[in-house]
Amino acid sequence: MRLIQNMCTIAEYPAPGSAAAADCCLGAAGRRLVKIAVVGASGVGKTGHNLFFPLFIGNLYTRQVQIEGETLAIQVQDTPGIQVHENGLSCTEQLNRCIRWADAVVIVFSITDYKSYELTSQLHQHVQQLHLGTRLPVVVVANKADLLHIKQVDPQLGLQLASMLGCSFYEVSVSENDNDVYNAFHVLCKEVSHKQQPSGTPEKRRTSLIPRPKSPNMQDLKRRFKQALSAKVRTVTSV
């Protein structure tokens, strides 16, 4: 998985076989887990092989990142390439399970393949349909940015599409620039991290600022009762 494999070159990734790598795979106690699925057409550069990226289960890869001072464990799931037929997308049940499993999705197209670009909006719609009731964080990545001599998709088109879909956009070359790949995953992790924050805390804080009504003093209540009773007695006597 070419896009995924370049994540491992970031210095913060734990060495294979180390305790840190094991923690990342298993989700150490107290460490939040972010699950990301990478989807796209066949041949866009999302798939491949890398011996330095520890394999957890099947095509599930892992690493750790620092997000606003917190260490998060990431699991990145590779998916089979998607085909397009006359009736629309051809999505296997395996692919649908991966998308449902994910907390966020990376949609990849190649600037050398216009059809993979056209697939992006359909894929985004399919992803959101599988997560009805919540808007899943999605990043759009245009890969093979170094192959300008055979490009079929202008970068501006990718940016416009991502903006229309409400997604972040990155143009990368996984064979040349690791930082661009890292940034795309980092943005997703940050979005998921914020989404997972407890929503009740700010509300409780605001509520606590509202002054509570003072409870009536017991002596004051007795005094008022005696006054009302005396007034009633005087009224009856005068009659």
UniProtKB/TrEMBL annotation:
Known SUPFAM superfamilies for this protein?
A: P-loop containing nucleoside triphosphate hydrolases (SSF52540)
- Which portions of the sequence form the region Disordered? 196-220
Q: What class of enzyme is it?
A: hydrolase
What Pfam families does this protein's entry cite?
A: Ras (PF00071)
UniProt keyword annotations, A-Z: GTP-binding, Hydrolase, Nucleotide-binding
Q: Which InterPro entries match?
A: P-loop_NTPase (IPR027417), Ras-related_GTPase (IPR051065), Small_GTPase (IPR001806)
Q: Which residues lie in coiled coils?
A: none
> EC number(s) per UniProt?
3.6.5.2
The chemistry this enzyme catalyses reads: GTP + H2O = GDP + phosphate + H(+)
**Which family would the database say this protein is a member of?**
Belongs to the small GTPase superfamily. Ras family.
Q: What is this protein called?
A: small monomeric GTPase
**Organism for this UniProt entry:** Bos taurus (Bovine)
**Top-down, what is the taxonomic lineage of the species of origin?**
Eukaryota, Metazoa, Chordata, Craniata, Vertebrata
Gene coding for it: RASL11B
